[in-house]
Amino acid sequence: MNYDHLDSDKKDILIIDDMADNLRILSSILTKDGHNVRKALNWQMALTATQALLPDLILLDIMMPEVDGYEICQTFKAWQLTADIPVIFISALDDVFDKVKAFRVGGVDYITKPFEFQEVLVRVQNQLALRSARLEILKLNMELEHRVKQRTAELEKTLQKLQQEITSRQKLQSKLLDIALHDSLTGLPNRVLFIRRLENALNRTQQESSYQFAVLFLDCDRFKVVNDSLGHQVGDELLLAIAHRLQGCLIPIDTLARLGGDEFGIILENITDINIAIQVAERILQQLSLAFKLSRYEVFMNASIGISWGNKYYDRPEYLLRDADTAMHQSKAQGRGKYHVFDPGMHQKAIQLLELENDLRRAVERQEFLVYYQAIVSLTTGKISGFEALVRWQHPIRGLVYPGEFIPVAEETGLINPINTWVLQSACHQLSIWQHYPVTPQPLTISVNLSAKLFSQPNLVEQIDRIIYENQINPVYLELEITETVIMENTNAIKIILQQLKQREIKLIMDDFGTGYSSLSYLHNFPFDALKIDQSFVKRMQQNKENMGLVPAMIGIANSMGMSVIAEGVETQEQLAQLRSLNCDFAQGYLFSKPIEQQLVLKLLAAAPQW
Questions:
Q1: What separation, in Å, do the N-terminal and C-terminal C-alpha atoms of the chain show?
Q2: What is the pLDDT of residue 2?
Q3: The pTM is what?
Q4: Across the strands, what pairs with 309?
Q5: Spatial distance between the Cα atoms of 585 and 381, rounded to a whole number of angstroms
Q6: What is the C-alpha to C-alpha distance for residues 503 and 480, in angstroms, rounded to an integer?
Q7: Are 198 and 317 in contact (CB under 8 A)?
């Protein structure tokens, strides 16, 4: 694409409108704002104008003779040279349907006639700024690719030179040993060398009664987000910066090692008491909280630290590192960006967690799970419109175990996949049974949460197809709830799966909207039918009665994109009234019904409650 004209001080704007007055007015205000403006009365003139010089921005009227604005926009988006040019629709049509259609065919904004001149200027400036930013990123990416190739060539030459310089077997063996004991990225001692030095420290406690030491286990918080979003090269650069900053917090006799990934180990030698280790941990947390100014990005990072006190009663160095790791996980559970000192009770908790994992594996084999159902109420009719399926574990000894206790373990171990599939199968089977009872309202939907782990399975859509077929349910009545973390994992792959589910007329709901990495671009790019507002936002409505917090904004976002809204955690009549006043579509919570066993669902439906 020819970008030469973008170096000009003025941006080029093409206005396509069959009304001469509109062209004159828009041209006048945009020219006064410092832009080059070209005008086209129809599609042919617009095509000729773009072939002569690619504009930076297109203002496009919808109601055009012969070829309307929607078709013109689709044509531009299908043409490689103009596909990236932002299109702002200008129209007297103010219906939501027209706006949604404009966005679907590729428009980036929509301005309603008659124009507010200041609004036109602001929207145009915003889109020009976004386009400039995108082109700058493209340029930077090309420069980066060139630098990487150049650096790769240099590294290849350096490697050849090093291999030529290795003249003896003794030097080669020495180098291999050094590589085996140090991290290739940071140059720090690796886990093997760290364990050796830890063993030496334990031996000293046996020989020298005055010698004491401490171990710090450090895990970087949010590193995976940075690495996945900005790339492994930026992740490696960040790890180097973290290692450098950690070294600045230590003295030469201390050992700093990279244990793997974003985990670091520290041995503080010859210290007198645990308070010194705590002071070092606090200094590290303070230093890591400062911004990392990398070559292309400014990144913020913090860490969780576990501390264990070295003493002669430890039999093996691995146990000491294990206890520091356990303490680190405790600090992470307390909110991240903190430190925690190990105590023996924490080891017992770790053993209990392992026992829970073993019990959970047996539970999957024995199908010890139950599905409870919570009513979803239409705020338009005040009646039950569906149910959400919620899993429970009927433990043979502990009794009923709630998901908050075992789902995190299931996610970590991969057991969530068979559990989630079983819940989906059970919920669809139950729906097929309920639909044959006269008390069941028509239509009645069933909503099931899908774990992010399920989307890594290559046959997910086939599994869902099989469950629908076996239970003979209409997929229109099946709703799948997906958290924002799912679409953060692998955007392109997830998008394909969601589109396949959408083609089957299965409803897709973004669960807990607003609690994760919410982005309007996700809503534009993925075919969601509804947003589910987390109960934390519903509770805040009563704390902030003047504007009811973020709930009105969330409902407005959903409505503008043609999505419905479900509010969860509704417990009071006041919350219900507030949600109705905001035109929220659906709600669920203890005000209507707690999660109940399947045999109680028909009784609830027969009672035909009205809210």
A1: 59
A2: 45
A3: 0.52
A4: 214
A5: 10
A6: 14
A7: yes
